[in-house]
Specification:
The complex is a heterodimer of chains A (about 375) and B (about 375).
Chain A (H helix, E strand, L loop, with lengths): L6 H17 L2 H6 L5 H13 L18 H13 L8 H14 L9 E4 L15 E5 L2 E12 L6 E7 L10 E7 L5 E6 L8 E12 L3 E2 L5 H13 L1 H23 L1 E2 L2 E2 L4 H29 L8 H23 L17 H9 L9 H12 L7
Parallel strand pairs in A: 1-4
Antiparallel strand pairs in A: 2-3, 3-7, 4-5, 5-8, 6-7, 9-10
Helix pairs in contact in A: 1-4, 4-7, 5-6, 7-8, 7-9, 8-9, 9-10, 9-11
Chain B lengths: L6 H17 L2 H9 L6 H9 L18 H14 L5 H14 L3 H12 L5 E4 L16 E4 L2 E12 L6 E7 L8 E7 L5 E6 L8 E11 L4 E2 L5 H37 L1 E2 L2 E2 L4 H29 L5 H27 L10 H13 L4 H11 L3
Classes of the chains: A alpha+beta (about 375), B alpha+beta (about 375).
The structure holds flavin-adenine dinucleotide (FAD).
Chain lengths: ~375, ~375
C-alpha cells in the first residue's frame, strides 16, 4: 500500500503544475464553460498541444504514450487548479479506451459523441432499434438517437445499432464508428433545463458507414458497449472525483465568503457538519477510485464495481449544489444574468445541471441494479 | 501509487480469518457475553503467540515493527467476528498511545508486556460530559511533593475490568486547548475503584473508574506534563483508525448475511432480493462498506507514513465508519424482517457492536466538526 508518487511521477506532476501556472488564469476559468464550444475547443487544443490530453493514449493516435498514472496526475492537477473540463470527454474517456481495447482508428484531439440512447431505449439500452443493414462493404444506418451530448459539434460518433432485427435484446447489436460529416445525418439540438443545448436528437437516414468502421464483431456490439460503459464509470470515475473536488472547493469558499450580518455561513454548525460530510464522501470516492485504479494498473479491465463511483458522484455532486443553494437563501433563486445573482448565477446553473447527474451515464437506479446483481449476486429484478 | 495489500498482509488476513472462523463463531461470542471476564484469556494468549499484539511496535520492545495497516487487517477480521477481547483497547489504544508519545522511557517500561500479551491496558479520558476531547477533562491532578494526587471519576473506560494499568488524562492547567497531564496508573493502586458499566454491546466491556485520593508517583507521567492532550491526540488518531477498521469488518459481515438471506428468503413467490426495495438497500450497504474500508486503510497508511493530512484522514475514517456501520447494521436488520428482531438471530449483536463503535472515541458529529476545523472551514 503506497499512496505517494514515485520520483518520476513527482517530476511529471511538477511539469503539469508549471504549465498550469503559466497557462491558466481566472479569465479562462470563467469563460471556458457551458455552451461556448469554440472557447472550450481552443482550451482543449492548448491542453493537447502541451501534451496533457490523451496522456495514456498511444502516440500514433495523437496521444502521449504515457502511463495511466500520469493521466490521473493530470486530472488531479487540473482539479487543484480549477481548470475547465475538457470538451472531448467522451472521446478521451469512453470512445478512446473502448477503441484501444477492441480495435484502432482515432485521434485524441477531436470531439466525439456517444449515440446509444433512443426514444424508447434508455435504461433498457439493449432494446434499441436503430437499424444497420449490411450492403456490400458498407453498413446502411437508419433510425433515431436522442440525448446525444455534443452531437452538434462532434466529428465522430460511437453508435450502437441493430444488425439483426430477429433478435430483440443484447444479441444482434453492432458497434460502429460514424463520421458525423456523412450524408443522411441530421442533428437537432435540444434545450436542457439549464437553457443550454448540450444534447441533441440525431436522425439517421440511409447513412453509409464503411465496414472498416466496425468495432468488434457484427452482432458483438453489446460487449463493446459494455467496455465503453465500464470505462465511463471507472476511468472517468477518477475524472469525476476531480470534478467533485472542484465543486467542493468552490462550496467551501462560498461558505466562507457568504457573510450574513457579519457572520460567515461557515460558522454555522449545521453548515460545518454538511460540508465536512461532503468532504469525507468526496475523499471516500477518491479512494474507492484509487482502489479501482490499482486493479487497472495491474492490467485488469475495470469491473462493475466502477458503478460505485458513478453512483456516489451523481448523488454527491447534487448534494454539493443543493448545499450551496441552501447557503445562499433567497439569492439562490436568482437566475444567471440577474445582477444580484451570486457569482453570476453559477451555482443556480450548477444546481440545475446536477439534476442530470443521476440520469446520464446510467441512472442511479440502474447502477444500484448493477451493484446488486453483478457485484452482490442478488437475483435479477426483471 | 498502489492501493493493494502485500502478500504478507493477505497472508495475515487469511490467518486471522481462519483462526477466528474456527475459534470465534457467534456461539462462542454469546458464551463470552455471559462470561465474567468478558473475554477468553486462552484466546488472548493464542493471539499473542501469533504475534498480533506485536504488530505495530518497535523491534526494540519485542515488536514486529510493522504498521497500522497490518494491525487494521487483523482488526477488520476481529470486527467481522465480533471478537470479545481487550485487544483493541490494549494494543490499538493504550499501546499505540505509548508508542506514539515519543516517551522512550515509558515505552521501554510498558510496551514489552503488551507485546508479549502478559498485560492489558486502557485509557481513561471521558468524564460525565461524555466528551472525547481536552475540554471535557475536569478531573484534576494535584501535586503532592514528587507525586500527583487524583480525585474524581472517569467513565466509558474500555476493559478497565481486566486492565493492569491505564493512562489517565488529568487536568493540571487551566488551558481549554490542553493543560492535561497523562498519568500511568496501576489499576490495583489504593483508591482506584473499577465499577463495571452495563454495555448495550455485551461483547464489549466498559467501566466507570473512581479515583479517591490516588497517589501517582512523579515518574508515571507519559510525555510532557501539561501537554497531555497533544500526546493523547496522536494515540487517539491511531485508535480511531483501528476502530474504523473493526467497524468495517462488522459492516462487511452484516452485508454478507443480508445478501445471503435476500437470496433464499422467498415471499410472493420470489426471493426478496429480487425486489429493488431490498436489493437497492443492499447496494447502498455495499457502497458504505467499501467506502469505510477505503477511508480506514488510507488513514492507516497516512499515519504510518506521517503524512501532513494524517489526522484529517483519521477523523474522516472514524466519522464515516461510525455512520456506515450503524446504517449498514440497521439496513441488515430490516432485510431480515421479524427474525432479525429476535435475540436468537445474530444480527442484533452486530447492530449493538456498531452502535458501541459509533459512540466510542468520538462519534460522527464530533469528527465532522474536527474535519471542518482541519479543512480550515
Ligand atoms: C444530460 C444528459 C446527457 C446525456 N448524454 C447522452 C449521450 O451522450 N449519449 C447517450 O447515448 N445517452 C445520453 N443520455 C441519455 C441517458 O443515458 C438516458 O437518459 C438514461 O440512460 C436513462 O434513460 P431514459 O432517459 O430513457 O429513462 P428511462 O430508462 O425511461 O428511466 C425513467 C426512470 O425509470 C427508472 N428505471 C428504468 N428502468 C428501471 C429498472 N429496471 N429498475 C428501476 N428503475 C428503472 C430510471 O432510473 C428513471 O428514474 C444523456 C442524458 C442526459 C440527462
Amino acid at each position: 500500500m503506497d499512496f505517494s508518487l514515485s520520483p518520476e511521477e513527482t517530476r511529471f506532476r511538477d511539469e503539469v503544475r508549471d504549465w498550469l501556472r503559466d497557462n491558466l488564469d481566472d479569465r479562462i476559468r470563467e469563460h471556458v464553460t457551458g455552451d461556448d464550444i469554440e472557447q472550450r475547443r481552443a482550451w482543449q487544443r492548448r491542453v493537447h498541444e502541451a501534451g496533457f490530453a490523451g496522456v495514456s493514449w498511444p502516440r500514433e493516435l495523437g496521444g502521449q504514450g504515457g502511463t495511466l498514472m500520469q493521466e490521473v496526475i493530470v486530472n488531479q492537477e487540473m482539479a487543484a487548479a480549477r481548470a475547465p473540463d475538457l470538451v472531448n470527454i467522451i472521446g478521451l474517456y469512453m470512445a478512446g479506451p473502448t477503441i484501444l481495447a477492441h480495435g484502432t482508428l482515432l485521434r485524441a484531439d477531436e470531439i466525439w459523441c456517444q449515440g446509444f440512447s433512443e426514444p424508447n431505449s434508455g435504461s433498457d439500452l439493449a432494446s434499441l432499434r436503430t437499424r444497420a443493414a449490411i450492403d456490400g462493404d458498407d453498413f446502411v444506418v437508419s433510425g433515431q438517437k436522442v440525448w446525444t451530448s455534443f452531437a452538434h459539434v462532434a466529428r465522430w460518433c460511437i453508435l450502437l445499432t441493430r444488425t439483426d432485427a430477429s433478435e430483440t435484446a443484447h444479441a444482434g447489436l453492432t458497434y460502429l464508428i460514424v463520421d458525423m460529416h456523412s450524408p443522411g445525418i441530421e442533428v437537432r439540438p435540444l434545450r436542457q433545463i439549464t437553457g443550454d443545448a448540450e444534447f441533441n436528437e440525431m436522425y439517421f437516414t440511409d447513412v453509409r458507414v464503411p465496414r472498416a468502421n466496425l468495432l468488434g464483431e457484427v452482432g458483438g456490439g453489446w460487449r463493446v458497449a459494455m467496455t465503453t460503459l465500464m470505462h465511463e464509470r471507472a476511468t472517468l470515475g477518477v475524472g469525476l472525483q476531480v470534478r467533485a473536488r472542484i465543486a467542493l472547493d468552490a462550496l467551501r469558499a462560498l461558505a466562507r465568503e457568504t457573510v450574513v450580518d457579519g457572520v460567515p455561513r461557515s460558522a454555522d454548525p449545521l453548515v460545518r457538519q454538511q460540508i465536512a460530510q461532503l468532504s469525507i464522501e468526496v475523499e471516500a470516492m477518491r479512494l474507492n477510485g484509487l482502489r479501482g485504479l490499482t486493479k487497472v494498473l495491474h492490467g485488469e479491465q475495470p469491473g462493475p464495481e466502477g458503478s460505485v463511483n458513478k453512483l456516489m458522484w451523481s448523488e454527491l455532486n447534487q448534494r454539493i449544489a443543493e448545499t450551496a443553494l441552501d447557503l445562499l437563501g433567497p439569492y439562490a433563486t436568482l437566475a444567471e444574468g440577474d445582477e444580484r445573482a451570486p457569482l453570476g448565477g453559477r451555482w443556480a446553473h450548477g444546481y440545475l445541471r446536477s439534476r442530470a447527474n443521476s440520469i446520464e451515464g446510467g441512472t442511479s437506479e440502474v447502477l444500484r441494479n448493477i451493484l446488486a446483481e453483478r457485484v452482490l449476486g442478488l437475483p435479477r429484478s426483471r | 501509487m498502489n492501493f493493494g495489500f502485500s502478500d504478507e498482509q493477505e497472508l495475515l488476513r487469511r490467518q486471522a480469518r481462519d483462526l477466528l472462523d474456527r475459534e470465534c463463531p457467534t456461539a462462542r461470542v454469546r458464551q463470552l457475553m455471559e462470561d465474567e471476564l468478558g473475554h477468553d484469556p486462552r484466546m488472548y494468549a493464542r493471539i499473542a503467540e501469533l504475534g498480533w499484539t506485536a504488530i505495530p511496535f518497535a523491534e526494540a520492545h519485542g515488536g514486529l515493527g510493522l504498521g497500522l495497516v497490518d494491525l487494521t487487517v487483523v482488526l477488520e477480521e476481529m470486527g467481522r467476528h465480533l471478537l470479545p477481547s481487550p485487544f483493541q483497547s490494549t494494543v490499538g489504544l493504550a499501546g499505540m498511545t505509548v508508542a506514539a508519545s515519543g516517551d522512550a522511557a515509558q515505552a521501554a517500561r510498558l510496551l514489552p508486556s503488551i507485546v508479549n500479551g502478559s498485560a492489558h491496558a486502557t485509557v481513561a479520558l471521558v468524564e460525565e460530559t461524555g466528551r472525547w476531547d481536552a475540554g471535557g477533562v475536569r478531573m484534576a491532578a494535584r501535586r503532592s511533593g514528587d507525586a500527583w494526587l487524583l480525585q474524581g471519576e472517569k467513565l466509558f473506560v474500555p476493559y478497565a475490568q481486566v486492565a493492569t494499568w491505564m493512562i489517565v488524562a488529568a487536568r493540571t492547567a487551566d488551558d481549554p486547548a490542553d493543560g492535561l497531564t497523562l498519568l500511568v496508573v496501576d489499576t490495583t493502586a489504593p483508591g482506584v475503584a473499577v465499577r463495571p458499566l452495563r454495555s448495550m454491546d455485551a461483547t464489549r466491556r466498559m467501566a466507570a473508574v473512581g479515583f479517591d485520593g490516588v497517589e501517582v508517583p512523579g515518574d508515571a507521567v507519559l510525555g510532557e506534563p501539561g501537554r497531555g492532550w497533544a500526546t493523547l491526540r496522536r494515540g487517539l488518531d491511531r485508535a480511531m483508525v483501528c476502530l474504523a477498521g473493526e467497524l468495517t469488518g462488522t459492516a462487511q459481515r452484516v452485508l454478507e448475511m443480508s445478501v445471503d438471506y435476500a437470496k433464499v428468503r422467498q415471499q410472493f413467490g420470489r426471493p426478496i432480493g429480487a425486489y429493488q426495495a431490498v436489493s437497492h438497500r443492499c447496494a447502498d450497504m455495499l457502497v458504505m462498506t467499501e467506502s469505510a474500508r477505503s477511508l480506514a486503510y488510507h488513514a492507516a497508511w497516512a499515519l504510518d507514513n506521517d503524512v501532513p493530512e494524517a489526522s484529517l484522514a483519521a477523523a474522516m475514517a472514524k466519522a464515516y465508519a461510525s455512520d456506515a456501520a450503524r446504517t449498514v447494521a440497521s439496513h441488515g436488520l430490516q432485510v431480515h424482517g421479524g427474525i432479525g428482531f429476535t435475540w436468537e438471530h445474530d444480527i442484533h449483536l452486530y447492530l449493538k457492536r456498531a452502535k458501541w463503535g459509533e459512540a466510542t472515541l468520538g462519534d460522527a458529529s464530533h469528527h465532522r466538526e474536527r474535519v471542518a476545523q482541519l479543512l480550515e472551514l
